Amino acid sequence: MKLIKNDETLRRFIPNIMREVKGEVPFFDKLAPFLELAEQSFCHHFVPAELLDAPAIRDLASQAVALEAYRLAIPALDLVLTPNGLATVGTQNLVPASKMRTDRLVGGLLADRDKALAQLLHILPDIEGWPNTPQGQWFAATLFPTFDVCRQSGETEQSWAKYQELRPQLIDLEASLSEEWLSPELMSALRSENLRGDLTQERSEIVRQVQAQITGYLKGGSFNSRRLTNIVNFIRQREDEFPEWHHSATSQLFAPPIFKNKKNASGYFF
To answer: What is the value of pTM for the model shown?
Structure first.
């Protein structure tokens, strides 16, 4: 493990844990196997092990791993193996928590973990080398590289799970828009620039409009063809700004005369 190596560090990120009584197994030792699992999963999905020492992300990464490890450990923390099988831990003064309280704790840990992960995803593109890692490229496969899309589509709980559920649909919707409107070449370039945060003003506006189309589809089940036409006309009038589209096969689908974008026109797009 690279992130959490002792009890003191663990308690920084899970502060409301009582100190052990004499003879009790240390809390860190109880969680050690789960910390290992949580860190492996974190590195697989978010940050490769070689970048974990980056100061800008270390605390958030440690928080996410600690919370996830605690969540994974909870079902086993109040169980002991006896000669007669598994039993719950209890004393004269303490009894096992009810299922409702346990579920509430697990839900709180999930929410706090997802909050840390959401913050992390806004920082990671600035970490040198991260955008080109397999983890960075996984998030760059869509115009929605953060959990913000969950909120935009009306989902407010379990952001990481919901993001994984939405991602295949986002990729399919973007592929459809690429082939019929924006071109795969332009869409690919916009995804990379959007992840890095170095879009020009005009390209940023296109990303915003396309994102609105996709979140609108997620809510209503259809694209707005008039808006998409306006997007394409905006691109057609700016060859220097959108060379990928103008040199693509998709542009040939719009060979008829170009719409003139006049301020007094009802379909004016900026």
So the answer is: 0.86
User: What is the spatial distance between Cα 60 and Cα 13, in angstroms, rounded to a whole number?
Assistant: 9
pLDDT in tens, 213-233: 999 999 999 999 999 999 999
Instruction: Specify whether 67 is located in the same domain as 46.
Output: yes
**Strand ranges (E), 136-260:** none
Would you say residue 200 lies in a domain?
Answer: yes
At residue 200, the pLDDT reads: 97
Are 71 and 48 part of one and the same domain?
yes
How far apart, in whole angstroms, are the C-alpha atoms of residue 121 and residue 115? 10
Residue range 237-257, pLDDT digits in tens:
999 999 999 999 999 999 765
Which helix (H) or strand (E) segment is 82 a member of? strand 79-82
- What lies within 8 Å, CB to CB, of 44 at 6+ separation is 135
Task: Extract the tokens encoding 185.
Answer: 């070449």
What phi-psi label fits residue 21: left (phi over 0), alpha (psi between -120 and 50 degrees) or beta? Answer: beta
Residue environment code for 4-38, b if the CB has 16+ CB neighbours within 10 A, otherwise e:
beebeebbebbeeeeeeeeeeeebbebbbebbeeb
Same domain, 86 and 168: no
In terms of residue numbers, what domain contains 47?
7-128
Dist. CA 152–CA 124, nearest whole Å = 21
Q: Is residue 269 part of a domain?
A: no
